[in-house]
Specification:
Strand order of the largest sheet: 9-8-7-6-10-11-12
Shape: globular
Structural class: alpha/beta
Mean pLDDT: 92
Order of helices and strands: HHEEEHEHEHHHEHEEHEEEHEHHHHHH
Low-confidence stretches: 1-6
Distance between the termini: 42 Å
Number of helices: 16
Radius of gyration: 23 Å
Helix content: 40-55%
Strand content: 5-15%
CATH architecture of one domain: 3-Layer(aba) Sandwich
CATH superfamily of one domain: NAD(P)-binding Rossmann-like Domain
Number of strands: 12
Length: 473
């Protein structure tokens, strides 16, 4: 397994080098941007039941060109230093691409969450937090973790409670030490769906690009596009359901650890999610058919493939079997560098992870801003806007002599709640970032894919920060 993890870091470095070779920044500056600044590798004891276990964990701060650094914490038995370094590097570039003012970081605890009950997981999470506090690897102005694979709002609540308890009221912005918290504990509405919704916005923009769709033989737009989703976790669930419900896409295949199901006529994602929650499996979902081998999800005939599980799921061993014309990397590093070469030769459009799954860190940024301002979004202007829109409708009715229906008026005069502002901000962020990437992709003749264009966009922004700080002339 270690070689697989190492290839992920190697893929990140190879993709970085590919973009850097097309740029004219000084070699020293490029080396600094590529280098991982700080690595904290730790081992700590936790009493589980009647015995002590020594837990291995990591926190990596890839770049401090902007502070705080930002990145999720994953709980997985496959966690190792190379993987966490790779993920931290991607976070640096991801934040730069979507203009979120953070440096990149990542954390990992080498455990399988399924092997522990809630009490044990809480002990591990709190002890890990204490280790970060001792080394100054956490804080609203230093390093701000978030959920990742194997963690969620529950773990973030434990972290913020541990941190605020340790600070004993001495830090006014203490709740901003972590994002992805429950909404009632200083979290933000829309954070749980953020990465999946960001995938929808980003994929929608690519599918609306007429020249690109013409090149690969698809009609512009998401309506009617067939999609296969690999991974029914938080990201895959929301990405699939939003693409279906708001974009009009048809989900024809879903793959999870227990197997892969298909239905050319479409799988109702909302019903499938409820079915799996009740049955603990997607197998047997009404109207679907299980395919013989779980790994054959890559062979399903579709327009769009959304890998939303772990890294290195699409490799040189299965890349040739892919029938999809677009791959949206909802997971981090699902396509290896070797597989990407094969896919690009086939003309497949690969929407890179550090752009398409940036919705999570974008809304985490909004949550962090909310925590620093100590005020819910929409509180100041919702009623003002509602009254202003209402007065405008009344004016139109008086001048035209025509009445607006009660239902239409309720829609027109409605002021924006926090969830509306969060979704609006996320949509704007994903659209703007894609246009920046697309401009580089089209303007530079030697740039042959969106990933290279995204790296160039990120490297330029990070380089500008270092230059402005005077670190490099």
């Amino acid at each position: 397994m270690s070689s697989k993890q190492a290839s992920f870091l190697d893929s990140v470095h190879r993709n970085f080098d590919k973009a850097a070779d097309l740029m004219d920044h000084p070699s020293g500056l490029i080396s600094q941007i590529k280098a991982c600044n700080s690595i904290y590798e730790m081992n700590f004891p936790v009493k589980i039941g009647n015995k002590y276990e020594v837990i291995k964990a990591f926190r990596v701060q890839h770049s401090q060109h902007r502070l705080p650094t930002k990145g999720g914490i994953r709980f997985s038995s496959y966690v190792n230093k190379d993987e966490v370094q790779a993920l931290a590097a991607l976070m640096t570039f991801k934040c730069a691409i979507v203009d979120v003012p953070f440096g990149g970081a990542k954390g990992g605890v080498a455990i399988s969450p399924r092997a522990y009950n809630a009490e044990a997981l809480e002990k591990i999470t709190r002890r890990y937090t204490m280790e970060l506090i001792r080394k100054n690897f956490i804080g609203p102005s230093v390093d701000v973790p978030a959920p990742d694979y194997g963690t969620g709002s529950r773990e973030m609540a434990w972290i913020v409670d541990t941190y605020t308890t340790f600070k004993n009221g001495s830090e006014i912005d203490a709740v901003g030490c972590v994002t992805g918290k429950p909404v009632h504990l200083n979290g933000i509405q829309g954070r749980t769906e953020a990465t999946g919704r960001g995938v929808y916005y980003g994929l929608r923009e690519v599918l609306l690009d007429e020249p690109e769709m013409k090149r690969i033989g698809l009609e512009p737009g998401m309506e009617g596009k067939t999609i296969v989703v690999q991974g029914l976790g938080n990201v895959g669930s929301y990405a699939g359901s939003i693409c279906q419900n708001e974009g009009g896409a048809i989900i024809v295949g879903v793959s999870e650890i227990e197997g892969t199901i298909v239905n050319p006529k479409g799988i109702d994602m909302d019903k499938l999610i409820k079915y799996r929650k009740a049955k603990k499996t997607i197998i047997g979902f009404p109207g679907s058919k299980k395919i013989a081998t779980r790994e054959d999800w890559v062979k399903i005939d579709c327009d769009v493939l959304i890998p939303a599980a772990l890294e290195s799921q699409i490799h040189k061993g299965n890349a040739k079997s892919i029938k999809a014309k677009v791959i949206a990397e909802a997971a981090n590093g699902p396509v290896t560098a070797d597989a990407e070469k094969i896919l690009l030769k086939k003309g497949v459009v690969i929407i890179p992870d550090m752009y398409i799954n940036a919705g999570g860190v974008t809304v985490s940024y909004f949550e962090w801003l909310k925590n620093l301002s100590h005020m819910r979004f929409g509180r100041m202007d919702k009623r003002f806007n509602q009254n202003a829109y209402g007065n405008l409708v009344d004016l139109i009715e008086r001048n035209t002599g025509k009445a607006v229906t009660k239902r239409d008026k309720s829609i027109i005069v409605r002021g924006a709640d926090e969830i509306d502002l969060v979704r609006s901000g996320l949509e704007e962020t994903m659209i703007t970032a894609f246009h920046q990437i697309r401009d580089i992709y089209r303007r530079r003749k030697k740039v042959e894919d969106y990933r290279t264009a995204a790296f160039i966009s990120a490297i330029d922004k990070v380089a500008s920060d270092y230059t402005t700080m005077g670190v490099f002339p």
